[in-house]
Amino acid sequence: MYVAVKGGEAAILSSYELLAEQRRGDAGTPELSVSQIRGQLKLAVDRVMTEGSVYDPELAALAIKQASGDMVEAIFLLRAYRATLPRLGTSVALDTARMQLDRRISATFKDLPGGQVLGATYDYTQRLLDFTLLANAQPSQQAEAREGAAAPTVTPRVVDLLNHEGLIETHEVPPGDPAPVDLTRTPLRFPADRATRLQNLVRGDEGFLLAMAYSTQRGYSHSHPFVGEIRVGTVELELAPEELPFTISIGDMELTECEMVNQFAGSKTEPPQFTRGYGLAFGHSERKAMAMSLVDRALRAEELGEPVEAPAQMQEFVLSHSDSLEASGFVQHLKLPHYVDFQSELELVRKMRATSGKNEEATGEQP
Question: Which of 104, 84, 128 is nearest to 227 (CA)?
C-alpha cells in the first residue's frame, strides 16, 4: 500500500492529534475498550482476522479501535504486524470433520445425520431496527444459562452422502502431498494452482468476492450452485514437532467452512456429476465463505473444460484485484502530490488546443 508521504513535520504531528481526537469522540462518553469490541463486534473482528491472516481476536479488536472502525485500515494494520512475526512452525492440516459445531445447515438435504443446527444467525430475523438496543440492556437469564454449554459432536459431511453414489467429484491426496506455495512469502504468479487461488481468496476483500460470486448467479456462469453444507464451530489446531513422534494440540480455532455443490455436464474424460467449490474463513464468516466457494468453483472452469467467458472465471482478473490493501493503496495514492505529472499534462493539453486552433484558422472552420 502507498504510505510514504512527505510534508511539514509540524502539520503531520497535528494531523496525528486530530486523528486521535476523532477516534476518541465525545470525551463525555465512556471510551470503547478493546475487550468490548472483541466481545460485541465479533463479526467485524472475524473479518479482520480472516483478511489480515492472523487468528488473534484481541489484536483484531485493537486494530479496529485504532482504525476507528475502518475495516480495510484495520486489516492493513494487522497484516503489517503479521509481517514482523517469526515463523515457528507449520501446523498439521485441520480436520474440519471433527469440528465442534455451533451451526450447521445444508440446502441440499433436509434430514442429515446429526441434524441441522441453526445456531446464531440473522437468517431468520426481521430486518427491522431494534430500538431496545439503545438502552443498556442486561443479559437475559436464558443467555446466561447457555453460556459454557458445549456439546461436542462429530458429524459426517453432507458431500459424503453423494460420494456413496459416486455422484460428486473426489480429490485424492497427491503422492507426497507437496506443500502449497506460501502466498505471504512468494509473489502471485499465473497460472496459479488451486491451493494458491484459495489462499488468495481467503485474504481477498469480502465485498469484491461477494460481487464476483453474485455475478456467477446472474448469467455470467454456466452452473447452478447449491449449499452442500455450511459449518461454524471450533477445530483443534495441532503441531507435529520434528523431535517428537506425535502431534501436540496448541489450541482451538473458530472457523466457518462452506462446500458449494454445482452441476457439471461432463467432459471427454469425466462423466456428468456434481463438482465442488470450497470456502474457509476465521470465526463466524458465512457470507465470506459462501462467496469464496462460489468464486473458487468459477475459477475451475478451465480445469473442468468449461469455456472461460465471465470475469469470475478469469483467474488473473479475480486474483489480481481481490486484495483490499492493494486496491485501497492504488486508489488512495492518487491523494499524494502529483504536481509535476499534472503540470506536464496541462502543458500538453494547452499545446493540443493551440494546434487545434491554428488548424481551424488555416481551414477557415469555426470552432
Answer: 104
CB 47 within 8 A of CB 206: yes
Amino acid code (one letter) for 279: G
Torsion of CA 316, 319, 324, 325, to 10 degrees: -80
Pair 192, 315: CB distance under 8 Å: yes
| Contact present, 68 and 90 (Cβ < 8 Å) | no
Q: How crowded is the C-beta side of 316, counted as CA atoms within 13 Å?
A: 5
pLDDT band at 268; cut points 50, 70, 90:
low
Sheet holding 100-105, edge to edge: 100-105, 225-239, 248-264, 273-282
Q: Say how far apart CA 167 and CA 299 lie, in whole Å.
A: 21
Contacts of residue 257, Cβ cutoff 8 Å, sequence gap at least 6: 96, 99, 229, 230, 231, 232, 279, 280, 289
Nearest-10 Cα torsion for 20, 206, 197, 88: 40
Helix then strand then coil, in percent of the chain rounded to 5, is 40, 15, 45
Residue type, 111: D
- Chain center to CA of 206: 5
Is residue 18 exposed (0-12), middle (13-18) or buried (19+ Cβ within 10 Å)? Answer: exposed
What pLDDT does residue 2 have?
47
Pick 163 or 364 by higher pLDDT: 163
Please state, in angstroms and rounded to a whole number, the distance separating the CA atoms of residues 246 and 261: 36
